[in-house]
Structure formats: C-alpha cells, structure tokens
Amino acid sequence: MSTRAKLGGICLLSYAIGVLLSPYFLPTDFLTVNVAPLFTDKLLPSAQHISINNDDALHNEENVVELELPPMKYQAPYKQIINDDDPFHGVDIVLHRNGEPDPCMRQQQQQQQSQLDGDASSSFTLLEKLLERLGVTIANDNSDDAAAPSTASNKESLSPLSQSILRSTEQFTKPLSFDSKYDLDATLTHAFATNTQSIFSNAQSSCGPTWEQDPTKPHYLDQVNENYNLLSSYSSLLKYCDMGIDRTPIQPDHNNLVRLAQVKSLPCTFHTREGLRVTSLSMLVELAREVKSDEGECGVGDNNEESDQQTCTSGNGGDGGNARKELHLYAVSAGRVFMFAPKHVGEVFELPHVKGPQGLPVSLQVMSLTPRVFDIYNFFNRDESAAIVDKALKETSETHKMKRSSTGASGYNLNSKRTSENGFDTHGKEAQIVKRRCMDILGFDEYEESLTDGLQVLRYNKTTGYFPHMDWIDDPRKKEEHNFDSAGIGSNRFATILLYMSDLEAGDGGETLFSHGWPAGQAEEEHVQLDDAIDALRASGDVEGILKRDSWEEKMVANCRSRLAVRPHSSRAVLFYSQHPDGSVDQSSLHGGCPVITDQPKWAANLWAWNSIRGGFPGSPKNEHVVEKNRAANKSPENDQQKHATFINDKSDESMRHAQLFFQDTFWGNYGFDDPPLGINTFKGHKWHVRVDGEVVKSFTIGRDKKQEFHI
Fold first, then answer.
1. Which of 310, 324, 581, 604 could form a disulfide with 99 if both were Cys (CB 3.0 to 4.6 A apart)?
2. What angle in degrees, to the nearest 10, is found between the helix axes of 160-169 and 109-134?
3. Per residue in 586-604, pLDDT tens?
4. Rounded CA separation 35/27 (Å)
5. Which pLDDT tens digit goes with each residue over 226-265?
C-alpha cells in the first residue's frame, strides 16, 4: 500500500474514531448509510480485506491492532460514586410534571438498550469497514459480548440511565461536578430531553408545556431553532423546563443555574414525590438503592389510585423476568417551586427528611384535591404554640404588635368583614424554627428568608371571623411597585401553612372554611346548599342572640357546617396552595375564618410562602412603570418601613474573631473574621446582638435610614 494511501487511511481512521465517540452530532446511521459506501466501494478499492472478530480469520498477525477507546471524561468519578454495581440496573425512571400525579414519561428499558446498542453498532460498522480496507483488525477476546453488550453483567456494564448521563456530561464545555445540584439539574435535563440519548420513548412523551404560548411573544427557543435547527434533537420537555423569559421568575440563586449545552436553555429541578430535591448524584444513587431494597412485591393493585407507593411495576426487560422497580421523579420548571401531586383524598405523604419538635417524621394526608388541602402531622407542639402566642402578646413595635387585622397589598386597610386581630413574629426563636420547618415541608432544600413572610399570629374572639378571600394578592391593573403576576415573572404567595393553637369543640365555630370544597367522602347527592344550611343553622338555635340574621357571619357559619371546613385543635397544622404549578392563581383556594361562637378565643398562626422573592428584598420583581412614576413624584415605596442592615466585621478587634450575630435570642449567622458580611431585612427598633462564647458583647438598634451598616 502506498504512503499516500496509508496517510489517507490514518486520516479516515481518526475521523471514524471521532464519529464513534460522538454519535450525537449527526444521526447515528448517517455516515454508515450515506458516506461509508463511497469510501469502501470507490476510494479504497485496492485495500486488502481482512475478517474482523473472527479468530479463524486472523491469519495475518501483523494486521491485528489492539484498539481501546478512551473512557468518557466523567466516567471515572461517576463510577467512584455508584461503585461496582450500577444501582440503576433494574430501576426504571418515571417522570412527572410538577404537581401531577400521573407520569408524563416512562423509561423504556428494552427499547433504550436496543437504541444505545444500535447507536454503537452503527458507528462501529463504519469503523470496521474503514479498518477493513486498511488491513487492520480490531481484536476482541469476547465476540459474544461485543455483539450483545446488553447481556453483560451488571457489575461490568453501565445501565441505560448511567450511559445517558455520561453522554450528556460530554456535551458541556464547563467543568461539571456530580456534587453540584446545579450541574446535576442541567445534566439530567439534557439526558431526559435529548432525543438521541434519552432513556425515554419521546414518541410517548406528554412532558411538554402546560400553558399556551402567546403568539405575539414567541418562545426564545423557537427563535433559536429558526436560526440553528437545534430543537429537532430534543423533546418537548425542553420547553417545559424553560418556560421562557416572560414566564420564568428570578430566584435568589438564578445566577447559579447551568444552562444546557448547545441550546442554552434553563434546566428543570428534580424532586421526589415527598418533595425532597435531588441535589447530587450520590442522592440519586441512594434513592435508586432504596427503591431496589423495597421488599414489597408487584401486584395488580400497586399502581392504582388507592396506592400511595410509586416504587414497583411488573416487567421482564433486562432482569431475567424479575419485577422491575420504579423511581418517580417530579420535574419543576426553572424559576418555579415544587408542589405536591395528590391523587386521591386520604393519600399519605411520609416526609422522613422533615422532623417535628419531638423528632418524629412529619407526614401529610390529603383532605381535598380541589382545592389542594393537606393535614400535617407531627409538625409542632403546644410548647411552641405557647411561646409564639406569648411573644405576640408582648410585642410593642407598631408594625408587629397585636391589633385589628388589615387587608390589601399595601398599607393598613381595615375591612368590616375581617374582624380578627393579628400581629407578626418575624425573627423570634420559635418563629424561625417553625418557618424553617415550613420551608422544609414545601420542598426547599435551603432556607431563604426572602421567600417567606413573618409568622402571622391571629386571635379570633367571640363573633369575629374573616370573610372568604384569597391569600394570593391581586393587582390586575399593576398599580403597585411590586409585580404580583406570578404566572409571569412576578412573585406572590403560593402556599399557606396554618397552625392552630386552641382547642375548639364541634359547634364552637372558628373553622377554616374552603368555600369551593366539600367534606371528604361526601357523595354529590349529599351536598347541602347554602339556603338549606342556613335553615338548619337557625333551627339549631346555636347562633341565636349571637349573630344577626342575614349577616355575612351567619352565612359563614352555615357554610362552615356544609362545606369543607377544618376544625381547630391545638398543634394541628394544615397546608394549602394558592397557585397552580405554572404560577397561575388557583381560584379554588378561596377560604375564610368562620366566626367563633363560644367565649373561648381562637388562636392561630400562618406562614405565607412566596414563589419568588417578595417585596422589600433585593431582587424582587418590579412594575417598572410604577417605580418610575413614584420616583418622579418623589414618593417612597409602600414597604419603606422595612430597613436593610449590613453587619460587617472589620477584623480589627481580635476578640471578635469568632463572633456570632443574634436577633434577640435567635442565632442568625456567623460574624467572625472568616465570614462574609451579613445582609438582613429588618425593621426600625429591632435589636441585634453580637455574642462571643455565648456572651453579649455588643448590641445594635435599627434606626430610620433605609440602608444601614453596623461594624465590629
């Protein structure tokens, strides 16, 4: 063979190896079908033919080359995490959209393995033909394994999910870490969304957007696709994960998100059914092993609506006829927040990752699907209740002390149909503990103060109540500086956790009424309409001489006895949502406080959680036209009472090397030489203490200025 032919062959060999390692740049059979025949039939007609993978045909040892393909970039650290036995063998990934009990994609194990093997075989065929013409043979000691890689031992082979993850990591130019939740989000989104490497059958996918795209505001991915034709390689999951510029709220960690390779779209986050966010490959591995260790057997009823478990399915692909296990993951769009996906009333969600005050695991039980209401068990105790109430009664600041409850998005506005009293506990020790527990339940892996209000403490005396209302704040004409449009890029209250601190008997009133719900288990023909409920109430005489006839209070009590209502008892907690997973308002969450008709007051508290940064915190979404209007009129924003304080350690006093910052008796953060400045939203009159070795060595009081700095 001439030198020129050999050089040309080496070039072709290098190109073929590149194709073998990167089959996702072109359809995997493109070169084999369209290009290879040109080379094998025309360009290399004189090359010597040598049989491949046939020991009897290897009669010319000089032509035998040991070819070992280099491992993928992240294969070594990946295998260190999963160890020798890939935990994803025998486990099928089942994907749900956020808040939806029914899956939108299900792993096709046999089909995926065949596809992966076919991709490798297609690229390998081209390499074989080229080497064949060059007189080179690829040595392979086990032709059976090469022909059927899917039959290799689990300890020696990677599962389809592992292969898909590793192939996806190759697409990113930035260094990736399997311990980074942001890197993992991007890797899993790419692995699940790409058509050429996904473990899912995208033809059966229903994981696309749940909203209708405004034709006047096309999704930026469509514009990218027009220029580069990239979307043909991805499933509709891509647009679900990245809702677009006009529908993606900016979270505090937005700048940490890792965009997908090539298309540069934002990834989903992934949670378990119980709300636990998957933050590392190690966690995903552990979840797979937990699923496989479940000793329950698959049965006909395991996947029906009465089952609360999502771990088992029958099948026979790849496991010798054994039942396969399922790992259900819930995909949350970028900038959105996790929401539970109840399927039936009475369903239980065990949350072993959230511990109550006695160390018992917290659990949820579904009370209603529309609205979505959950009872919370083991959440808080009477000691915490008493401490919260006691602090509320002792509060003296004008903005936080107990007084007649107000309504509205801003300002102090009294409403004749809200007759309760309330105060706020934003930084108290028990309030902080309860707030963090609330956010753990709601699926947040890190606590973020800007996503919560203060704990609102409520007192309902006899005859007082609150007319049905929404916790979601409505500003349809966008008159406020804050952007409340949570379906767009705005932020609003998305979930409420109610805490009851009093024991009220049946007939005492004080229930929380959900006006659009019906009592659990009640048949439609048993529903009692309002007029009949009022007649029954009057016949009972329970409110005679207490409430006026035809008053809103009387109608409320009647509704409380006929509609879905939660009766208070000490240490009871309830969760309900005010938004749908896409950020749109859930109108069925209309609720109210039934008037108390006994002498014993009702004490309660609630925490509002926001879908993104709430007003008063840096980075909160604004209606810019209102901001400009107020600035031109020299008008202060409505939340001007809130102050932003920055606490800085100047490192000039050695005694402050290990200082800590406390709000009253509540630890807030480390304040030492090696710690960054602490930025905190607080209020005029609040007292902050610096402690060293448990002793208060310095105190600061918040003043009038909007922004303040304190140094030690």
1. 581
2. 60
3. 999 999 999 999 999 999 9
4. 12
5. 655 666 778 889 999 999 999 999 999 999 999 998 889 9
Strand order in the sheet with 660-663: 666-670, 660-663, 687-692, 695-701
What 3-state DSSP class applies to 279? coil
Q: What are phi and psi of 105, to 5 degrees?
A: -150, 145
Cβ(585)–Cβ(384) below 8 Å: no
> Are 454 and 682 spatial neighbours (Cβ–Cβ below 8 Å)?
no
Angstrom distance (rounded) from CA 664 to CA 667: 8
Run of H or E residues at 564: strand 564-566
Closest alpha carbon to 402 in 386, 383, 382, 388 = 388
What was the pLDDT predicted at 666? 66
Dist. CA 99–CA 401, nearest whole Å: 37
Pick from 185, 194, 171: nearest CA to 74: 171
Could you tell me if 591 and 513 are in contact, meaning their C-beta atoms sit under 8 angstroms apart?
yes
CA distance 559 to 517: 10
pTM to 2 decimal places: 0.76
User: Is the dihedral angle over the CA atoms 618, 620, 624, 627 positive or is it negative?
Assistant: negative
Our CA dihedral for 10, 14, 20, 23, rounded to 10 degrees, sits at -130
- Side-chain-side CA neighbours of 49 within 13 Å: the count stands at 3
Residue 499 CB: number of other CB atoms within 10 A?
27
Question: Can you state the angle between helices 75-82 and 160-169, rounded to 10 degrees?
Answer: 140
φ and ψ at 135, to 5 degrees? 80, 30
Distance (Å, whole) CA 637 – CA 624: 12
Residue 232, token pair as written in the block = 């043909």
d(C-alpha 73, C-alpha 76), whole Å:
8
User: 607: Cβ–Cβ under 8 A, 6 or more apart, which residues?
Assistant: 434, 435, 438, 452, 453, 455, 456, 496, 497, 499
Coil, helix or strand for 397? coil
Ranges under pLDDT 50 in the chain: 23-69, 110-114, 116-124, 126, 138-152, 154, 296-306, 312-321, 407-418
Distances, alpha carbon 134 to alpha carbons 17, 44, 56, 66, 657, in Å: 14, 8, 19, 15, 71
Q: 595, 559 in Cβ contact below 8 A? A: no
Condensed to tens digits (0 to 9), the pLDDT of residues 519-537 reads: 998 999 999 999 999 999 9
The single residue listed with the structure tokens 């929401």 is: 339
The CA angle 184-187-188, to the nearest 5 degrees, is: 85
d(CA 654, CA 657): 5
